[in-house]
Every structure is written in C-alpha cells, then in structure tokens.
C-alpha cells in the first residue's frame, strides 16, 4: 500500500523533486529526468538509462560516477517520452555519443527508439539497448521478447564502466550487448503492489501461495506454488537460472558470476540475507565463483513482496567492468575519484522551445475550433473512465492505462487551446496536441496517440477546409502509422483491433457519400463493437502476452479507450456548427 502521497497523478514528479533535493552531491535535475551533478568528461560516451517511476532505485538512483550519466524518468510504470529521453541525453552528452539503455517494454522501445532517431538526426551519435534478462517472460528461443528486470543493473554498470574507461561508442555498445546476453533473472512474489491512490493491489496471491515468474509492474506470475522456506526459495531461483545457461557457458562449474538478489519492495533485508545464505551455498556447490554479489533493492515494484535472482556470467573483459568503482545515490562500490567539473542545473525553459504556429486560413482555423472541442470531449471522457481503464489494464497489464491516458489527454487539450489562441489551423493544432500527449503520457499508448493525432493533423493541414474525405484519409494514415511504429496487426489484442475497423468503416461510409458526422457515428459504433470483441482474443504482443489466458474475457484497455474517444469525438462533431461534407 502506498500511504504517503498528495495527488496520485503528481506522485512521480514529486518523488523526483524530493530525490534531487536529497542527492545534490551526485545528481542534478534536467528536463526529462536527472543527470550526474558533474558534467560528463569531454569525449566520453554518455550512458543514459530510464524507464517508468515506481522502480526505485531504477532508474534515477543509478546515476553517478561509474554508473549512468543520466536517467529519463517517466510517470508511474510508464516509459518516459521520446522528448524526455532526448532532453536528458542532450544534457548528459559530451561529444562522445550516447548509449540509451532501458528495460525491454513496448513503451520504452518506442520512446527511446524515437529519441535515438532525433538525436542522430541532430548529429549526436546514438545507440539503443533493451535489456532482456527475465527468463520467465519468453522462451529461450525468443529472448528478444523478454522483459528487463534486475539485470538492468548488470548491463548499465558494464556500459557505464566501459564509457568511464574511455572506450568509443561502438565498444561500449558491444560490451553492453555481451553483458545483456550473459545476464539472466528469475523472480517469485507473495503479493502485488498497490499504485498510489489505488485501493487494491494489482494482483493478489492466495494465503500460503506464491507467484512464480512475475514482472516488475505488478504483472502477476505465470504459475502458483505453496510458499516455500527460504532455502527452498533459493533452490528454486538457483536451479531455474542454472537450467538456462547463456550461449558460451556450457557448464556452471568453473564459471565466475556477478549475483544480484533483488528485493522487489517489501521483503526485508534480513529475509534477503537468509535467502542469499542458501543461494551462495548452492552456487558454490555448482562450482560457480560469485563476484561482488549485491543483496538489496536494485529494481523494485512499489511495495510488491517479491524476490528475484540475477546471474551475470562474467568473462575476462566483463569482470573488471562489473567490479569497477561507482558512486550513485543507491549504488556504491570501491572509491571513485572526486569529480572536478560541475555542471549548472538546467531550467526546463533552457531546453523547451515554444513550437511554431505557421499562418493558417480562416476555414482551417474554424476546423481547429472543432478539433479543440473534440480534444476537450476526449479529456472529459477519459477522466470519467480513467479508473475503469486502469482496472481493465491491470488484468494482464500494469494497471496504468487510465493514468497515462488522463495525463496525455489533459496535456493535448491544453496544448491545443494554446495553439488556437496563437492562431493555429487544424493541422498545427493537432500537431501540438500530438507532441503534448506523447510527451506528458509516455508509455506505449502515449507514443501511439501522438502518432494518431500527428497523422490527422498532417492530413488536415492549415489551408483547406477539411472535408470528410480528408478526415478519413487522416484516420487511415493514423492506423498505418500505429501499425508501422507498434508493429501490431489486427488480432494481436491491441488498440489496432478497434482502430482498423474504425478507419475501414469511416472510409466506407465517406465513400458512399455520408457526411462526416454520420460517417463518424457509424465508424464509432464499429469501433465499440470491435473493442468489446477483443475480450475473446489472446494477446500476442507486449506486457499482456505472458498472461494470455488471464486476459481472456477482458477487452484490451487501449481498444476500449479508443472506442470511448471516437464516440466522444462524435459528440463534438455533432455539436459543431458548420459540418464539413464530402
Ligand atoms: N505494439 C502495439 N501496437 C499497438 N498498440 C499497442 C501495442 N502495445 C500495446 N498497445 C496498446 O497500448 C495499451 C497499453 O497502453 P498503456 O497502458 O498506456 O501503455 P504501457 O503498456 O506502456 O503501460 C494496450 O492496451 C494496447 O491497446
Ligand atoms: O515502467 C515501465 C513501463 O514501461 P511501459 O512499456 O511504458 O509500460 C518501464 O519503463 C520499466 O522499465
């Protein structure tokens, strides 16, 4: 239970403010997150990590000499936006290029990937690495689908130590990839976490039972077993990881391994040590030499009662990187030479540019007023359904869909209003709303709603009076854009399952000559039916995939929110005075 908070939607921002106030010696606030207090040495590769809040010390607590140069900090359980990642990278980089490293989650992959494209386009060499250590999240043959959990630390530490040693970006990437390939984690849990403001945990485990193979976002485990003794828990963790050795490790005997026994939020340190006592014995019996083991909280999931074990199979070149000194708020090792160069904190205004508002025609400004009304209706409907969306997302996801959609739709509405006040046409207004939504919401749906609004804006433009055909072309482009970026197809149980039927029905009705409002009405009804029908689908992508069976009977949260949104937009179109016709 998270007991101490103010406004739940402000929890992540307020926690970050307090964290920076407590750790001024090591970190400074920069737009999008935090960077080391000391400037990166000129020419050194900057390792920028990041992810959602709720996992402390991941990710901000891992910033400091010998560890990350910066961390992009997202909302609770939601990846930071591409804009945040790019801002932190710009604040941390010093001419040697940037490695963006993060856990392998859909939202993070989308946002860090987009940030890398932007940085590269601006002349900052940039690479990305998604950590995939959690053996329970996909089969060994599909390791690229695995989630990143406590193994994040092994990979971040390797990359940062390589950067600190002055190696060029390509070498830092090679070593970080090698570390990722040789890191495996596995976890168990006794109870799920409760998000700030929520009145129930994301999952529960019956008394006397434990969940096996859990994630770090309140994703429930894949199986249940009776609660073991500490020694039996250690046996399960060790035997699972010894049962899946990475390529190049034929037998554990004679190997050297970094070890992380990670508490997920409410398992006490003494309990961890009791478990570690047996982990150490079992590894010794198997002939594994442990190197600099870590026992403590390195990646958490709020107050989840759980434990994970990570083995980092070392090589001659990886071991010195694992054992190199570091000095971060939540991770200290050896002695780090005092940093000499200090950097001034950057105010948000230093990096935020006011987006341009090009000249627009009067008909386009009239359409912009309708678009603003639609965005207001979206915000209202999402606010009214936020809790329900969170509940649906919690069945097989991480329960944050309502929070993210709320932050995104509020920000889009504010940005649209400001754009209209500055004379924006429909296209520019939607572009500003798109960027604000993606930036403020983060997460998978934030990135995808950014794509949807941007595609619509591009189709409407700032000169013509948009007609039903232009709107339908924009919706088709939005569906294409979402599928291109997210790589989901219909049937995967995502928002695509509502968006595609919506786009198809709209285009068909418009093709038959229906006016926009009537065509939109028909299409919104199709989206609603399609969203409901996702209850019968098994998820094939993303966080819900490992919990496919659990999600049967519950619709996809993103499809439901999309259906709600298009229905609300219909209300705004119906209320608008001059309706565009085909
Ligand atoms: N690859 C994808 N393509 C399209 N939509 C996706 C994809 N992955 C997830 N989604 C949608 O995003 C929704 C989850 O959004 P949200 O909870 O905000 O993001 P996150 O899972 O990053 O926390 C899902 O219900 C699904 O509709
Ligand atoms: O908390 C996280 C959620 O990622 P999403 O894919 O946006 O849900 C993640 O950043 C942890 O690494």
Automatic annotation (TrEMBL):
The keyword DNA-binding does not apply. Residues 7-331 form the DhaK domain. SMART domains: Dak2. Keywords: ATP-binding, Kinase, Nucleotide-binding, Transferase. The keyword Zinc-finger does not apply. One of its GO terms (molecular function) is kinase activity. It comes from the Bacteria. Residues 369-571 form the DhaL domain. This is Dihydroxyacetone kinase family protein. It holds the Pfam family Dak2.
């Amino acid at each position: 239970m998270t007991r101490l908070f103010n406004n739940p939607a402000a929890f992540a921002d307020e926690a970050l403010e307090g964290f920076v106030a407590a750790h001024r010696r090591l970190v400074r606030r920069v737009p999008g997150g935090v960077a080391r207090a000391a400037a990166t040495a000129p020419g050194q590769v900057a390792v920028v990590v990041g992810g959602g809040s709720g996992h402390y010390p991941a990710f901000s607590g891992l910033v400091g000499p010998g560890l990350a140069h910066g961390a992009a900090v997202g909302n609770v359980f939601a990846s930071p936006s591409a804009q945040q990642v790019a801002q932190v990278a710009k604040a941390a980089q010093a001419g040697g290029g940037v490695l963006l490293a993060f856990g392998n989650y859909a939202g993070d992959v989308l946002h860090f990937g987009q940030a890398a494209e932007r940085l590269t386009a601006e002349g900052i060499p940039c690479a990305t690495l998604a950590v995939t250590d959690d053996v329970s999240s996909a089969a060994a043959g599909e390791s690229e689908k695995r989630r990143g959990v406590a193994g994040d630390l092994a990979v971040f530490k390797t990359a940062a130590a390589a950067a600190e040693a002055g190696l060029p970006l390509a070498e830092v990437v090679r070593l970080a990839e090698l570390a990722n390939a040789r890191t495996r984690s596995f976890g168990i849990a006794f109870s799920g976490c409760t998000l700030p403001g929520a009145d129930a945990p994301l999952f529960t485990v019956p008394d006397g039972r434990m969940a096996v193979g859990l994630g770090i976002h309140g994703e429930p485990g894949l199986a249940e077993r009776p609660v073991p003794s500490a020694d039996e828990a250690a046996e399960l963790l060790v035997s699972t990881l010894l049962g899946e050795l990475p390529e190049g490790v034929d037998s554990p005997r004679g190997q050297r391994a970094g070890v992380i026994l990670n508490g997920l939020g409410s398992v006490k340190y003494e309990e961890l040590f009791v478990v570690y006592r047996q982990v150490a014995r079992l590894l010794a019996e198997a002939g594994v030499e442990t190197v600099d083991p870590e026992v403590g909280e390195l990646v958490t999931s709020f107050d989840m009662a759980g434990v994970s074990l990570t083995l980092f199979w070392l090589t001659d070149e990886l071991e010195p990187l694992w054992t190199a000194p570091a000095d971060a708020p939540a991770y200290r090792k050896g002695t780090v030479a005092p940093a000499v160069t200090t950097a001034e904190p950057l105010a948000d205004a230093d990096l935020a540019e006011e987006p341009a508002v090009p000249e627009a025609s009067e008909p386009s400004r009239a359409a912009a007023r309708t678009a603003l009304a639609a965005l207001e209706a979206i915000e209202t409907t999402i606010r009214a359904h936020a809790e329900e969306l969170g509940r649906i997302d919690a069945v097989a996801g991480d329960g944050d869909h309502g929070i993210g959609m709320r932050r995104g739709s509020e920000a889009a509405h504010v940005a649209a209003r400001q754009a209209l006040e500055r004379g924006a046409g429909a296209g520019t207004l939607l572009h500003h709303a798109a960027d604000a939504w993606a930036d403020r919401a983060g997460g998978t749906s934030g990135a995808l709603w950014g794509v949807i609004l941007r595609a619509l804006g591009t189709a409407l433009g700032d000169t013509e009076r948009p007609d039903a055909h232009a709107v339908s072309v924009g919706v088709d482009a939005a569906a294409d854009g979402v599928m291109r970026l997210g790589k989901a197809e219909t049937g995967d149980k995502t928002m695509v399952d509502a968006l595609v039927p919506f786009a198809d029905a709209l285009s068909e009705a418009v093709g038959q000559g229906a006016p926009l409002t009537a065509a939109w009405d028909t299409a919104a009804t199709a989206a609603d039916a399609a969203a409901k029908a996702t209850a019968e689908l098994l998820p094939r992508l993303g966080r819900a995939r490992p919990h496919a069976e659990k999600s049967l009977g519950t619709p996809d949260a993103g499809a439901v929110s999309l259906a709600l949104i298009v229905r609300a937009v219909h209300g705004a179109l119906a209320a608008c005075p001059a309706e565009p016709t085909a």
